[in-house]
Specification:
Layout lengths: L4 E7 L6 H9 L6 E8 L5 H6 L6 E5 L4 H11 L4 E4 L5 E2 L3 H11 L5 E3 L2 E5 L2 E2 L16 E6 L16 E4 H7 L14 H8 L6 E6 L3 E5 L8 H16 L10 H21 L4 H10 L1 H14 L8 E3 L2
Parallel strand pairs: 1-2, 1-4, 2-3, 6-11, 7-12
Antiparallel strand pairs: 4-10, 5-12, 6-10, 7-8, 9-11, 9-13
Length: 313
């Protein structure tokens, strides 16, 4: 079997979680994959844990440059048809690649697929009083939403790299992640790459079954409220420089996507955590985009929602 998927895991000081992350990939029921782990200058035991897997994974080391540079390094040696981004504190359900492969075969190799995730905390499903046991879950019928492209989607898609499955040829064509990124400026990298590939289609959103487990802990990137706000401002500046595809015809849609995340972050995180100046700074820097998001959400009420598609066996 050829290499369908290349899994890219950037790792920085994740010795507490990275073994489970790697093992979740190695336990996949679909075997046509490779795993590339890029240690981003860790100062704990992460590199040693990765080395302990031997030739079951490809291991790359670099100085601390941030996850975007790490993913680019992994993608440069990847042999898979599709890239699967996975953060080093998350995990995949054992049937995830089977689900992705079936979507690819049934829907004529879509360039962009967004998986479905669940949240867990301290070994239990978040907000649910039951143990988190991904190994015992059974994949049910596959239900997806199909859009012309990412800019055409009419549902909110919370940001996480671990849900993204992207055709490598498309990743290469758009130039990958940012080359000037740093450990302090990489935030909202998931939105950046989504916008870079936003006119490629069809764009598929998996609704069920779940394929990704998002781990909640004290070291989550979302704890850096101000850094993420600064990252949103950089995303908006890149839009004003014309870095995303679609030209003037798709500007409104890009504005709505950027403004939606900016307004949500300004209110739900900055303002609620007392970071009032940062909330206002974020809103001022993305004001036209926030207005586009508000209007887009309003007119969406009058549009017929996209009907989910169930894929036959």
């Amino acid at each position: 079997m050829g290499v369908r998927f290349s899994v890219l895991i950037p790792v920085y000081n994740r010795e507490k979680f990275v073994r489970q992350t790697v093992e979740s990939v190695l336990s996949q029921t679909f075997t046509g994959f490779e795993l590339i782990a890029v240690d981003d200058g860790s100062t704990d035991g992460s590199a040693e844990i990765l080395k302990s897997f031997g030739d079951r994974i490809k291991f790359i080391q670099q100085s601390n440059q941030g996850p975007e540079i790490a993913r680019n390094a992994g993608a440069a040696v990847a042999r898979g048809e599709y890239l699967v981004f996975l953060d080093s504190d998350d995990a995949l359900f054992p049937y995830a690649f089977e689900i992705y492969d079936r979507i690819i075969r049934k829907l004529n190799a879509p360039p962009v697929i967004l998986g479905a995730d669940v949240f867990f905390l301290n070994g239990r499903y978040y907000r649910e009083n039951r143990e988190f046991t991904p190994e015992t879950l059974v994949a049910g019928p596959i239900e997806v939403l199909k859009y012309k492209d990412y800019l055409s989607k009419t549902v909110d898609t919370p940001g996480t790299n671990s849900r993204m499955v992207l055709k490598k040829s498309v990743f290469d064509e758009v130039g990958g992640f940012r080359k000037n990124s740093t450990p302090l400026t990489f935030h909202n990298d998931d939105l950046y790459i989504a916008l870079k590939v936003s006119t490629y289609g069809p764009f598929i959103i998996l609704r069920s079954p779940k394929t990704v487990a998002y781990r909640m802990h004290e070291g989550n990137t979302i704890k850096g409220v101000n850094l993420i706000a600064e990252g949103m401002i950089l995303i908006a500046e890149a839009e004003r420089r014309g870095e995303y595809p679609g030209g003037s015809k798709r500007r409104w849609e890009r504005y709505a996507l950027i403004g939606g995340r900016a307004s949500s972050w300004a209110y739900r995180y900055c303002w609620k955590e007392g970071q009032y100046k940062m909330a206002l700074r974020l809103l001022v820097n993305t004001a036209p985009m926030v207005l586009a998001a508000i209007w887009s959400k309003f007119i969406r009420r009058f549009h017929k929602p996209v009907t989910p598609v169930t894929l036959a066996e």
